[in-house]
Amino acid sequence: MAITIIGAGAIGGVLGAYLIRAGETVIFCDIAEDHVSKMNLHGITIEGPDETFTVKGTAYTPKQLVERNVPLETIFLCVKAHHTEKALLPFLPLLTPDSQIISLQNGLCERKISKMIGEERTIGCFVNFSADYLEPGRILYGGVASLYLGELDGTISSRITVLKEKLQCWGPAQVTDNIWGYLWGKMSYAGLLYATALVDETMAEVVRRQDLRGMLMELCSEILEVADKLHVSPLGFDDWEPALVYPREQRNRKELEAQLEKLAKRMAANKKTKSGIWRDLAVRKRETEVDAQLGDVLEIGKNNGVEMPLLSALVDSIKEIEQGTREMNWDNLYELKKIYESLPTKAS
């Protein structure tokens, strides 16, 4: 199986490096010419919590890969959610009826991909490990976390089982018959992560703020209510348990508080203590994925009659930080808390 990794940054770089080290046939494709050049000349280096290693890689820019004109068998799509369509379009002529694209992205990107190439060539993936692109040829890896592969219709096919086995060289990849459950569970978690990026502080420190927890959990509940409207059962992962957050009326405060403490402890122990969203805003000074992730949820929610005042305000605040009209500050979170306190009905 020849694997093409489109987007050789944090996620794509880590998985590609582990697969190459295991002897798999992998090529990288990335728009950053200096990154491509570095990988071809010196390889790609992964700096993880347990080891640092370098593997030689073959890499192309998108233009070079198109000009190579070789059909693409298996694609790991690892670009930012808002680049999905633009990243895939050049390669559509290189796809065959048997090609398969696995979305190792944040968001509900499988919806867009399947519209472009058909559900039969789209494989869903939930991935939650943390990593950062540091510089050309160098990736910071936070360590193993959950990764699930799933067909969009919920069947357990031989092709996702084969992929799972290949990814064991990285870690405990698994298959699921409810990939949408994991993707929506991740979306509810994304709401929490975007909120932590409103302030220049670690994720753990925000989650530990007792006086903000009611607001944060209502924010996540808005997203989970949309999933409920779609008859999706969100699933938990890595100390994030959507079932403890929603439905609101079934929330057990004591159990939820204990779970959030576990989550904060996990966040504090991770090599990456601030989110990729924070890094986009504070370090790389670029647009986040907020429109392609939470913006999509807002649109789906609107179409299903779900009111989302907190999520809407959060998206606006993130975009204002992107544009430089708002600064990261604790006040941003307390503005959301005021909205939360004004809601006529809410869980505590």
TrEMBL record:
- A Pfam family that this protein carries is ApbA
* Annotated coiled-coil segments of the chain: 246-273
Please report the stretch or stretches of sequence annotated as the Ketopantoate reductase C-terminal domain: 178-322
A single MF term (Gene Ontology): 2-dehydropantoate 2-reductase activity
This protein's pathway reads: Cofactor biosynthesis; (R)-pantothenate biosynthesis; (R)-pantoate from 3-methyl-2-oxobutanoate: step 2/2
> What are the Ketopantoate reductase N-terminal domain coordinates in residue numbering?
3-153
Give the NCBIfam families listed for this entry.
Answer: apbA_panE
**Listed name of the protein:** 2-dehydropantoate 2-reductase
Species this protein is from: Planococcus liqunii
